[in-house]
Amino acid sequence: MFFLPLYHNLAGARCLVIGAGTTAVRKIRWLLRAEADIEVISPDVSPAIKALANAGKLKVTTAVFDPGQVTPDLRLIISATNNRDVNRFVYDAAIKAGVLVNCVDQPDLCTFIFPAIVDRSPILIAITSMGNAPTLARVVRGWIEAQLSPNLGKLADLARSLRDRVKIELPSVDARKAFWETLFRSAAAESAMQGNLGDAKTKAEAMLTATTSTETGGVPQASVALIGAGPGDPELITLKALRLIQSADVILYDKLANPAILDYARRDAELEFVGKQGPKPGSPPTRPDNRGNQQFSINDAIIGHARAGRNVVRLKGGDPFIYGRGGEEMEQVLEAGFEVIMVPGITAALGAASYAGIPLTYRNLSQSVRFVTGHRVENVVNLDWPEMGRRDQTLVIYMGLVGLPTILAKLIEHGCEVERPAALIENATWPEQRVIVATVSTLADMAAAAEVTGPSVVIIGDVVAKRKS
Ligand SMILES: C[S@@+](CC[C@H](N)C(=O)[O-])C[C@H]1O[C@@H](n2cnc3c(N)ncnc32)[C@H](O)[C@@H]1O
Question: pTM to 2 decimals?
């Protein structure tokens, strides 16, 4: 059996529902949404349906079904009883009167069926298994629901508000199609989906002006998204990150972003690796590195792609604003005149703590958490070591592998007790994650003996002892 999905206008149309239990209520909800004129026929009526009748939403006839109740002015009939004889009776009467009929859970007694519905009105998605596996259709609905912004409908509102202007200003069908495709992946679309229609409209109108202007060569305003990819596990990215990655024209990605996330990109998206190389463990901490120059060329690349009208995703490990130079990149892009969509990610400290089973705060043990960088520790004159070693707090050190012996020695020198629990988490949230649990006095030697070389964070504080290995 093949059912063609058609969207039916039921506003004001007479619809009959036979049965008044929970199944009937589920169907009635959709009929109400469609503003149908509903009559329920049943000898027993559930409180939910009584309440709807009392609220004037539908009419109830307390009676057993009689084929005489089926008249040709009806648009459709739903039989929501679990009595197969009644269902057959309803079906025959409906067919005779030429009225659409659905006997719930009996596809052979249906001329139409209800799909599982994803409702982002006015965007509506119908999913059906043609009556073969309704539960599977509902599971698929869950998968689709998870992919779509709850505010997708606002994007349709934005498009509707611009439709007439776009038709006038872009007479060619191809130009209109290109404009809409760019718009739906732009910062204007993001504003709409955040519920800010006014801002969305201003941005969209600026895009339209740029598209029709000879000054810009018809290149519409592109968007740049700075996205946190999380510490490794690809399932730790946000739904917003996923959506933007799926619609990007070009993705500039870091060494620390899991390349598996790139599988979500469009097949024709350009993927550009722009990882920076920092000092390796064992190399002198004062070794000059080239990351400043590398950062300039990353900024240039982002802006270059945006100027060419592409939707750019800059995918960074962890969170862009935590030791990720996201602030600098954001400033540069804004200065170049482009919108920036910031998408937070799970920073390494949070991923490492959760996946290692170390709570970062704990009542009576740690009331605050401090994130510090151990990068170039020899040059850092402003680290307040007595503060770093205070009890009742958790210290998380990023980029602390190279300077680990020095950092731990400084902590001890400034009063941190040698037995304070400390842990190093290497490759946090990746399958190859390693956790070394020690104390402030033993961690550096244990890390050296374990030949740790991957990205690592160090957690220091009594909370480390809460880990159940
Ligand atoms: C340049 S910082 C980037 C931090 C990133 N923006 C974040 O929010 O996690 C690089 C440092 O982050 C830490 N890091 C990043 N990913 C990590 C992971 N999967 N496991 C442990 N540490 C990680 C390490 O300390 C590494 O040296």
Answer: 0.76
